Amino acid sequence: MENQVTAHEVAKLAGVSQSSVSRVFTKGASVSEKTREKVLKAAEQLGYRPNEYARSLIKRKSSLIGLVMKGVSNPYYPHAVKKFTSELKKLGYSVLLIDTDDVELQMQDIDALLSYHVAGVVIMDATASFQTAEMLRRFRIPAVLFNRVVPGTGLHSVSCENESAAREIARLLIARGCKSFTYVGGREGASTHIERLKGFTEELENHGFGCQVLPGDFTYGTGYRNGAEMIESGRLTDAVFAVTDLMAYGIYDAFRDRGVRVPEQVKLVGFDDIEMSSWSSYNLSTYAHPVDRMVALSIELLLDPEQSHAEGEVHYLTGEMRLRGTT
Amino acid sequence: MENQVTAHEVAKLAGVSQSSVSRVFTKGASVSEKTREKVLKAAEQLGYRPNEYARSLIKRKSSLIGLVMKGVSNPYYPHAVKKFTSELKKLGYSVLLIDTDDVELQMQDIDALLSYHVAGVVIMDATASFQTAEMLRRFRIPAVLFNRVVPGTGLHSVSCENESAAREIARLLIARGCKSFTYVGGREGASTHIERLKGFTEELENHGFGCQVLPGDFTYGTGYRNGAEMIESGRLTDAVFAVTDLMAYGIYDAFRDRGVRVPEQVKLVGFDDIEMSSWSSYNLSTYAHPVDRMVALSIELLLDPEQSHAEGEVHYLTGEMRLRGTT
DNA sequence: TTCAAAATTGCATACGTATGCAAATTCCTA
DNA sequence: TAGGAATTTGCATACGTATGCAATTTTGAA
């Protein structure tokens, strides 16, 4: 950085003023074709890049978007992250990554977002939501909760049609002739868990069926334990709906290890459609998130000033059922 | 950002000069306890955060580290990413994420790294290495290749003891009584592939054994196809070593689908020890990367001026064998 | 060819912070 | 209490770029 090439040096070499150099690199500014060529040639020769710090400072506008996640619990997120970075890059934004579950660092993370005056924040981590949301509101930084809904924060949410998807799954299992049902859930309070539980149990009730509800936390391990316990306590049902694919794998493996066959004895459905679900070891029926559309909408909400300063709303997008071997 | 609170406003409220405010937020600067308190109080009241753009500009030093990855092919990387962000945050750095496999955006990605004059770059993506490495050298930006070695770039590499680990795996399989061997590889040219292949085949040769080598690309799908083909062409061996866990899963599933039992008929070993390997559906024997130490060393190399400007070296760290159900 | 309109250019300044320097204050010792 | 050393403070400036304004050049029509 000490040997930084500046617009002044480019200007000198090109025989123009610093302003002209700046205008060449500022879209929407007017420069003659002749100077543009001279400047670009000199710039290439020197390896000039506009200094983003000076630029953001003078424009009073950041080109960074904060991406807040916590750990790597679910392979579903890396896909979304990649989509975000690609799409944002096309719009000229870069991504500031916040990814830790160290509570002591959380304040530092928020500081970073504020120090860089990020143009917006995407939150993929529920636990950070409350503290962070407050700060974001205070500093009027546009924010979107991705795949979660946290009532009362006033932030925009972009989520999947969890409830109606869960209803669809219920109807599917009924149509397959199942008579008894289990729902294995996620962390208490998580909107994905709440909404999927609601849709599933209500739809079953509409058709005159009850539902066994088991607690979970979105992890494979807990899925496995739930699956094992269902068998050992004799509470196995005709159908199991797991709140995420990851938990479904655990349940499936617990069944397989104990000789319970899927789908012959039990039908199993997950949620997310992460890559592994199409692997032959699981071949899991599941509900696919409309990830690309969710990302696109999130970005739109963040960057449209109309939207981003409006009171937060919840946007539910429709995904698609993927029928595979477990039903 | 338009309603940015500046050091001047804090200074006015606290009744001191802007310089004093700056000194309170600059570590190593000398301020009296009295002014510090006044300033901190005023700062909190106004919600002041030093503007990182102005700061980086005047100090001519970035607090950003670029993290370059490509897609999400291997669940191994998210763990490393998280570790990087946490450790870097402790040192006062934030992470600029580059994550795309869109070739057209690659130049823009490099521009971003240069525009922000990142203090260093961690590269987790082999394909970007060549183009990017050249740029990084030209602009004297410290860089570390993580889990890959690309000869001739002059960049530091932090990697796992692939070769000796592969030898250890060969000896293990021999000790288990295997007589015929297969190696299923990764993308041609990838250092992890080359080194593991070399260690494995050489050690087998030392003991008088040959080895069938099958081409691969690090993906589950190709693992599966290789596994299937081995059976269908009658070239199944006593032991199979896959270049990554991900490929091992594919091979395993192909075997399972065709009634070939692991480990009774075939012993199977992977590499990486990602979380799934301990799941009961695979319970895969594998070699665990020393991820934490690899990350720590990478950061050390990046931030130590002595190291970062020295000619790049390859640093191999020792991991640990994880014996599970497939051997 | 001439002259007004349009386009382009350079000058000067501002963004918010860090820091060398000199002035002001505090501290310590005699 | 005096007076010199040490600490703290404010002033002024610089970092590299974008942009309003005025000066200059180019364009186009008569």
UniProtKB/TrEMBL annotation, chains A, B:
Protein name: Transcriptional regulator, LacI family
InterPro entries, alphabetized: HTH_LacI, LacI/GalR-like_sensor, Lambda_DNA-bd_dom_sf, Peripla_BP_I
Classification via PANTHER family: LACI-RELATED TRANSCRIPTIONAL REPRESSOR (PTHR30146), RIBOSE OPERON REPRESSOR (PTHR30146:SF95)
An MF annotation (GO) of this entry: DNA-binding transcription factor activity
Keywords, comma-separated and alphabetical: DNA-binding, Repressor, Transcription, Transcription regulation
Domain HTH lacI-type: 5-59
Pfam families: LacI (PF00356), Peripla_BP_3 (PF13377)
Lineage of producing organism: Bacteria, Bacillati, Bacillota, Bacilli, Bacillales
Keyword hit for Ligase: no
Organism (species): Bhargavaea ginsengi
CDD domains in alphabetical order: HTH_LacI (cd01392), PBP1_LacI-like (cd06278)
Record-linked PROSITE patterns: HTH_LACI_2
